[in-house]
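Colleagues,

Please find the record for the two-part complex below.
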Amino acid sequence: MSEETKLPDREPVPGEKTDPGEKNTPEKKKSEKMKVRYTGEGTNKEPAAYLFACQRILALLAFFFIFIPSFNPARISENIRNSISLFTSAVSYSSIVTNFSFQLERGFIDAGIFYLLYAGAIVTVLGIIAAGVGICMSLGNNRVKHVSFMVTIPGSLASLVGLTLIYFSYVQASAVKEIGAMIPVGLPAYAILMGVILVLGVITLLVVPKADPAEDFEMHTKYQLFLMFLPFALLTFVFAYLPLWGWRYAFFHYKPGEVLSMDKWAGSTYFVQLLQNSATRRDIVRVLGNTLAMSALGIITSWVPLAFAILLAEIGNKTFKRFVQTFTTIPNFISWVLVYTIAFTIFSTEGFISNFFGSQLGWIKPGTNYLMSDSHTWLKMLAWGMWKGTGWSAIIYIAGISGIDQQLYEAATVDGAGRFQKIWHVTIPGLMPTFMVMLLLAVAGALSNGLDQYLVFSNQANMAHMEVLDLYVYNIGIGSKGNIPLSTVVGMTKSIVSIVLFFMANTISKLVRGESIV
Amino acid sequence: MDDERITNAEEQSTSVMSRAEREEQAELERIEQSQKEKAFNPRKVTIVDAEGNETVVDMRKKAKFRRQPGDVIFYILDYAFFALFTILCIFPFYYLFINTISDPDMVSRGAVNFIPKGFTLSNYQKMFAVSDMWQSVIVSILRTILGTATMVVASGFVGYLVTKEEMWHRKFFYRFLVITMYFNAGLIPWYMNMQMLGLTNHFVAYIIPGIVAPYNIILVKTYIEGIPGELQESAYMDGASHMTVFWKIIWPLSKPILATIAIFGAVGNWNSFQDSLLLMSNEPKLRTLQHVLYVYMNQASDVTSVTGTGAGDAAARSVAAAKTIKYTISMVSIIPILCVYPFMQQYFEEGIMLGAVKG
């Protein structure tokens, strides 16, 4: 939208500072800005403002429904896959006809029907996008608004034409029995939506006063910035907030691949099952035990990076220090799959331990696979976590130590403090705030151990002690069982408890340290 | 005579004094310098007493004088601990590497422990003969480049936008972004959402969800807030648009932080396998290298079918080859990180520090 402000007919051309009569350009600019701000606010107070607001909300809905398969107006046949959205239909012709390729080859169905449908989908999508752009432009002053009508009205008209084309292709398709034609929910819904947007566009065109041709194309800075931000807000909504809509699966008897409908309503069945079904309950208790045990081990050992940093600081040889720091942080940057591969090369039947200490030195029984046993699973996972993370977590403390006021050490030295006294009375108190934040975050994240580590290290032998909440959700939802409702229930509960824990940690931090973590 | 001598001696002594003073001055400067350098172990300390007299105490001499057996033991243990820990961190990589460049037969006999035996690069050749290997390498590289580039540009731009107080409902939208860091709907709803959007089995599923990265946006925002506002203001005075200010002023000035998030993003993209595992289940061609590796690791010893050694070879031989090929795939996945890391270490460390500032 910022392009609007740079149209050539703008009177005081930016950058024309050399003009002798324009010495007080900044002041002039400012007053001009004030004027724009005034007109911008002015239009908002008119009754048209409410019409614009309605139109914007409807346009947002129309835009979202482009990506939602359930609202696809182009699904005029039961045989068109129910997973494709209007957007997909408009982008790829092949996605529409995947299930008809045989009939089309043999000439049972006239391909013209699908070409018409495809064209209709394209026109609809382009129309909706044009209408959306126009409605975004309507945030400008009257001059911009009058341009925006020239985009919104034709855009919504075009989308209605596209919907009509889709309807025609439906009419043709209903004559052919093989297609199994039907009117999708999205078709009337979209027709109404775009119709209302069109009507609102025409009304606002009549209501908004005619712009003064001498006026510049302007939009208030706050709306310019907002419009630039809008695409990212939409992305965030789609990928971070829209999944919440998936919580509905917790209340339905749903199996993968089915279509959700009200006759599958399950109410609180799966919540009750979680608590009352003895097998499920036993699983949950075990999984919670694993989760909390591993988190607790992590929290108990959270002082290790701190100690690591303090001990490293005592080393005088700079090269050695640098060397240690470089190589102990590397494991943090490889994925858990690779950590597992490394575990495999060292600890499997033919790994290093078995080969060297077993076959060559004869200290242990060769051919032992340490990864396939369930002994000390929690400790092993802790050890791998520490192997991967200690060096990296220590960096924050190393930096913290260099941030401690040197005068404190000097004073302590003069007072005759030894090495350990200085560590105890100067270094550790200096690092405490950082440590507390890390600890609180660890407590807040006690239920989220992450999936990767436990997924790659788990196998038949150690699953009983390996299965943490994240892995359990994965196993029952996506793994062999495919129990999506139950898995959603567990995930949902976990998310809610986690956010509560997080806010508790934040409150504690506010009370104790006087500042929040966030 | 005597007078002359005395004056001479006086002169001499004053000149000596002044030289000593100068030396002292230089010494003090040097001490200051060394104190700045040696942040952790202040060796020389300047003590100022109540009357303003300065005394330099050389802590090193003092320490030498006071060095006790306990100190020596401490240093030995300290160095030994870090040497051991470092070896623990490096050795597995080294072991993996020597196994990939050794003769598969030697590897299967367990003869390769500390030095490579029967040097050969055939493992690498064989690995790339595996059908979907090239494809997965290309997918991984593409997603790393595209995913990182879009994420960095978006983080820079959004980070800039959220510093603008004038933005319509800025506070609300900023929180709208930040809250997503601490909250998610869960694995299954996320998966169902991706399915609903038609992103399963599609390459863009690697790129689009990663464009908005709230944590990186916070980092960039904090950084931009540290840039003097006058620079932007003067540009606005000259009639520059927000886009111009971003590209011409903010973007070049925030390069350090952008480089940092770019490196973190690249490593994350290269390493991520969860999205590939969940979303590309029906599209083996779009799997990332990490995912392919995971699949091979899970196939236990049954990778013989993919090595193309044929039926003529002894079964043991192909099992051995399969094992070294697993190792080789891992090595290929690790190499980019091992190559990039030493050069980028400072950025990584700056990154964690910036994160710590925000908590």
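Residues 111 and 456 of chain A are 48 Å apart (CA to CA).

Comments are welcome before we finalize the supplementary table.
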